[in-house]
Amino acid sequence: MKKIIKVALAAAFGLAGVATAQAGTLQDVQAKGFVQCGSNGSLPGFGVPDDQGNWTGLDVDYCRALAAAVFGDPNAVKFTPLSAKERFTALQSGEVDVLSRNTTWTMTRDASLGLNFVGVDYYDGQGFMVRKSLDVSSALELSGAAVCTNTGTTTELNVADYFRANNLDYEVVAFEKGDEVIAAYDAGRCDVFTTDASGLYAERLKLTNPDEHMILPEIISKEPLGPVVRQGDDEWFNVNKWVLNAIINAEDLGVNQANVDQMLGSDNPEIRRLLGAEGTFGEMIGLSNDWAYNVIKMVGNYADIFDRNVGPDTPLGISRGLNALWSKGGILYAPPIR
Amino acid sequence: MTDSSQNGGVERTFFLNDPKVRAIIYQVVMVAIVVWAGWSIVDNTATNLNERGIPFGFDFLTAPSGFGINQSLIPYSESSTYGDVYWVGLINTLLVAVIGVFFATILGFLIGIARLSHNWLIARIATVYIEIIRNVPLLLQLFVWYFAVLRLLPAKREALDLGPIGLLNIAGFYAPKPIFGANTWMVGVAILIAIALGIGIRFWARRRQMATGQQFPIGWTFIGLLIVLPLIAYFISGDPITFEYPELARFGPQGGIRVIPEFIGLLLALTLYTAAFIAEIVRAGIMAVSHGQTEAAHALGLRNGPTLRLVIVPQAMRVIIPPLTSQYLNLTKNSSLAVAIAYPDLVSTFTGTALNQTGRAVEIILMTMLTYLAISLLTSAFMNWYNKRVALVER
Ligand SMILES: N[C@@H](CCC(=O)N[C@@H](CS)C(=O)NCC(=O)O)C(=O)O
Predict the structure, then answer these.
(1) Max CA distance (Å), chain A
(2) Which residue among A46, A113, A121, A195 has the greatest number of ligand 1 atoms within 8 angstroms of its CB, and so is best to mutate?
(3) Looking at the 3D structure of chain B, how many domains does it have?
(4) How many Cβ atoms from other residues are within 10 Å of residue A269's Cβ?
(5) Confidence of residue A15 (pLDDT cuts 50, 70, 90)
(6) Is the Cβ–Cβ distance between A155 and A180 less than 8 Å?
(7) Are residues B268 and B134 located together in one domain of the fold?
(8) Which of A124, A256, B93, B323 fits a 20 to 30 Å CA distance from B124?
(9) CB-CB: which of A144, A151, A188 is closest to B170?
(10) Which of A152, B347, A221, B249 is nearest to B258 (CA)?
């Protein structure tokens, strides 16, 4: 009898204990010693592990920067590969601390999922890839085409909008995993593969003959991609926002991974504030004052991260375009550290 | 004499040691735990959703979905609602499940009987088939069928011309679409007359067999009627049915009735997989009927065919039906693997796309779970009813 009561009570309290407080992610992260980062598991240039389990990519580097800011160690991070369909549930349920997985900032997602978008770390737009042999030069010639895409993405909605608005017939074939989408397109099930333009460059590398495919000129949507955190935890939200801002501000101020130690001696007050030589900016967000120094030293500024993962010298070969700084013809801009 | 008689005959025990009292206490505690656990889950979910600012409710079902679905048996477009998405997905699930159950049953019975065959080669082939199919994960088979089928078929702008049957290529199977002219009703009436005649003949043949012992080939007569009568009507009414044949266009065949390759792949995988299990059930069922039954039937002068049909199978059915029901349920639930190959079933469209676009995880998962539960319970109820009908009536 006593045993049964004990078990019952334990079960009851155990269940009640599920309702954990959601604030305090920073403390939780500090206590466990690493950041749990939800990322793409199969998108070269953005988030992908190699055969030894080392993760690389632009989205991955954001999480490393976060770890560098919190722990002074870019490797104090663990990655969870998430499909487009799983990602928000994983973040909402607390399985990951931050979601950095080529995720588009939209109003529905921001306002109704109990999530907050940290900012934009890549300005993207949706594009189309077709076989050269199909002999089309514009998306407007695609009436009657079959389109392969991912379930649970903005892509799925944009393609419907676009074809409908232009009075074109189409058939959508939606798979859960990116690898299956590209395999089906490669097999010839679809005439068109559509996703974010950055994704097109990345996925094209997986095709049997990448040279037989071309990307059409139309960009049919705005896809501002950025990290996401749970709503209602302002402290963790701030940490994430300012890590992103620091990465962008560092490029703006000419501070990069190679020269950051020299820059410590700079007498430009903006640089001194960024690197913690002046002020207590790190403490304001619950970190140490060399938080941004660590980020730049260990991971780099925006240009370092972009060039390393997706830039012209990588297999993806993407130029900065919209993602250049505001002062260099792009729209990348971050509020000042002061 | 014992002590108890001196104490008035009743031995007092502590009431908690009374098995009846204990049984009641255990049950009360059990119910309390279940209620408490259930309440905790609901309460926790509500609290957590609330804290995270996630709304709860079913109003999203009337909002426009905004995405396309490539197979729908009811009218659906991007301006349809999430409620419509649910129905489209459910119907697609039921479609593949019902057709899958049909073919898996036929194939399963054939293979099960083949495995018992006295022909060494046939029995061996059936055994190999069953062992391979049962021991490879279904998801893997699904990928093999889908991607193998895709890669083997002609590209979109070409097609395998199957003549009057239709066209086949990577975008699916395109059958000719019948267009019914004004006089088609005559053919329909002819079919109805054939069926009515068939029933009448069966009645008459039964009566005659009872009275005289003579048999009548009901089956063949019925099939003959069903072919000849509509054919006559068809020609009398002046060839009313024409066919729209699919034709190759820029993005593949256009026109006709189209079956998407995702459906074909899923149906193949589900049918072949489940048939292997059904075959074993059928084999077990037949082996459960003792050989004496066959001998007795033969002694009564029944030939092999009627022996199987009238003696063995009815008895085997009693053993076959309960496990067969679970295979039907398995097939239906396994159809949710469709999400891996883009077949727009309930899980793919509703708990996949709709869940992701609306973020209403709790509501959508709840609805989907209840739906699968309802399908399973209805299937079981039907099979139980059927099982009662074929159960051995003991006299
Ligand atoms: N940015 C879009 C699309 C994101 C997305 O899922 N893209 C696909 C195509 S690039 C992808 O990441 N696939 C990789 C995978 O699912 O493994 C969104 O947030 O909905």
Answers:
(1) 78
(2) A195
(3) 2
(4) 12
(5) very low
(6) no
(7) yes
(8) B323
(9) A188
(10) B249
pLDDT confidence of A249, banded at 50, 70, 90? very high
B215, B209 in Cβ contact below 8 A? yes
Q: The pTM is what? A: 0.83
Coil/strand/helix, residue A7: helix
Cα dihedral B363, B61, B340, A92, rounded to 10, equals -40
CATH architecture of A4-123+225-328: 3-Layer(aba) Sandwich (3.40)
Class of domain A126-221: alpha beta
pLDDT of A235 strictly over 90: yes
Test A174 with B25 for CB contact under 8 angstroms. Answer: no
Evaluate the CA torsion angle B47, B51, B52, B58 in order and state its sign: positive
User: Closest residue (by CA) to atom 11 of ligand 1?
Assistant: A178
Residue ranges for chain B with pLDDT beneath 70: 1-12, 392-395
Q: Which domain holds residue B117?
A: 82-176+245-390
Residue B318 pLDDT: 87
Q: What is the predicted pLDDT for the residue at A22?
A: 53
- What contacts B3, CB < 8 A, 6 or more positions away? none
Query: Which ranges constitute the DSSP H helices of chain B?
Result: 3-6, 19-51, 82-115, 120-134, 138-152, 184-212, 218-236, 261-287, 291-299, 304-306, 313-334, 346-348, 355-358, 361-390
Q: List chain B residues with CB under 8 Å of A183.
A: 147
Residues in Cβ contact with A190 at an 8 Å cutoff, skipping those fewer than 6 apart: A145, A146, A147, A148, A173, A184
CB–CB contacts below 8 A, A to B: 144
Contacting residues of A for B52, CB less than 8 Å apart: 22, 92, 114, 230-232
Residues with CB under 6 A from ligand 1: A 40, 42-43, 83-84, 102-104, 150, 153-155, 177-179, 195-196, 199, 203, 223, 225
**Which residues 183-202 of A have a C-beta within 8 angstroms of B?**
183-184, 187-189, 191
pLDDT of amino acid B393:
67
Nearest CA to ligand 1 atom 14: A178
Angle between helices B218-236 and B184-212 (to 10 degrees): 160
What is residue B5's predicted lDDT score, i.e. its pLDDT?
Answer: 46
User: What integer pLDDT is reported at residue B121 of this predicted model?
Assistant: 95
Do both B254 and B344 map to the same domain? yes
Q: Are A130 and A226 in contact (CB under 8 A)?
A: no
Do both B160 and B259 map to the same domain?
yes
Least Cα separation, residue A14 to chain B (angstroms) = 10
- CA–CA distance, A258 with A243 (Å, rounded to integer): 19
Do B353 and B278 belong together in one domain?
yes
> CB contact, 8 Å: A304 with chain B?
no
CA of A153 to the centre of ligand 1 (A): 6
Selected residue of B26, B27, B44, B52 to mutate for chain A interface (largest A Cβ count, 10 A): B52
Q: What is the rounded average pLDDT for all residues in chain A?
A: 91
C-alpha of residue B277 to centroid of ligand 1, in Å: 38
Domain assignment present for residue B200? The answer is no
